[in-house]
Amino acid sequence: MSNSPPSDLAIEGQFYSGDNSHRQDALLRSVGGELILVTASLKQHLSLQDLNISPRVGNTPRYLYLPDDGVFETTDNDRVDQLGRGKSSGRMARLLHRLENHLGLILTAVVATIAVTAFAFVYGVPWTAKAVAHALPDRIAEQVGESTLTSLDGTWLEPSELSEARQQALQRHFEPFLAPVGGQELKVLFRSAPAIGANALALPDGTLIFTDELVELAETNDELVAILAHEIGHVEHRHGMQGMVQSSLTFWLIVMMTGDLSAFSDTTVMVPAVLMSLSYSRTMERQADQYALETLQRHDLDPRHFANIMSRLAALEDTGQGEGDEEREANSRWSRLGDLLSSHPVTEERIQRFRDAASR
């Protein structure tokens, strides 16, 4: 391919010298195989190889970068394309331009992008999060658990109002079930949580939080053991760390797609990425339920204990945690928080599973 510019080609545009921001009307002409840039104060002889031509994007202005930081700007894309044919890179630029203007290829690219993005969020991120969560050292889980507990105690959790005797009795009842799992030591804490209501939380470091409201809801200590076993299942499978990693990966994917780092920075100032890890997927819930069922059977405890207290939780949800109309209205802003922190959303299917196991 010839490296000479086409003859008798004239392109009008603006010239920036690079020494200042002033622009000058300019004409770039091809005469006798040579390029000449002419302005009111300048006449510059150039070769085609001196130019670095920006790719064509629709009909937006093109830039021809010249030696000594000079820039020639023009909207005459067709003539710039003619000029670019003399350069070895011209063929690639023309190909890119044709691809950018091919409607079928654009639609195909849009569909492929949506499909890849959906696959990444639905399958890629959870799989990667699970692999990373199991590869992280236990010390990371401990740090995350400690910081999360500090944040929760400073916001939505209050000191327990259960008597010391009641707490100690429950601790003794729980003790046979608190052997270390998933590389983490287990410990149970009690907190009052009017904003959350009857609930239990499993932090990544093996800290298990029971709200006073949940303790009061239980009719027997073994019902609380059933909930305890479920929460231990989350620790065993490292669901808390998996949720935290998954949240972080999701944020970073959004940042890379949108280029907006400020949204990620604002989010990480708070603790929602960690709190999101406390709300588990259906797959995680099934795994924790299986762990709880096996634990109850191994200790000769009736699986109905789990079904009974979960049924009572479902009834409480239907009646707004037993509040009056005014109290429900006052606490409506906490409803989403309860969903976020709930580590065991109630479903009839899950309750029925334990009932079926008890009848065998």
Report the β-strand fraction as a percent range.
5-15%
Shape: elongated
β-strand number: 11
Taking the alpha carbons of the first and last residues, their distance comes to: 83 Å
What's the main sheet like?
7 strands, antiparallel
Q: Kindly report the oligomeric state of this protein.
A: single chain
Low-confidence stretches: 266-278, 326-341
Strand order across the largest sheet: 4-3-2-1-7-6-5
Mean pLDDT: 81
- Count of alpha/pi helices: 15
Order of helices and strands: EEEEEEEHHHHEHEEEHHHHHHHHHH
Mind telling me the C-alpha Rg? 33 Å
The chain-level structural class is: alpha+beta
**Range of helix content:** 40-55%
> What is the total domain count?
2
Structural description of this entry:
- The chain is α+β, with helices and mostly antiparallel strands and 360 residues long.
- Helix content is 53%, strand content 14%.
- The protein has two domains: 9-100, Pleckstrin-homology domain (PH domain)/Phosphotyrosine-binding domain (PTB) (PH-domain like), CATH 2.30.29.30; 135-359, no CATH class.
- It has 15 helices and eleven strands.
- Strand 10 (200-202) and strand 11 form a beta hairpin.
- The termini are far apart.
- Mean pLDDT is 81; it is low at 266-278 and 326-341.
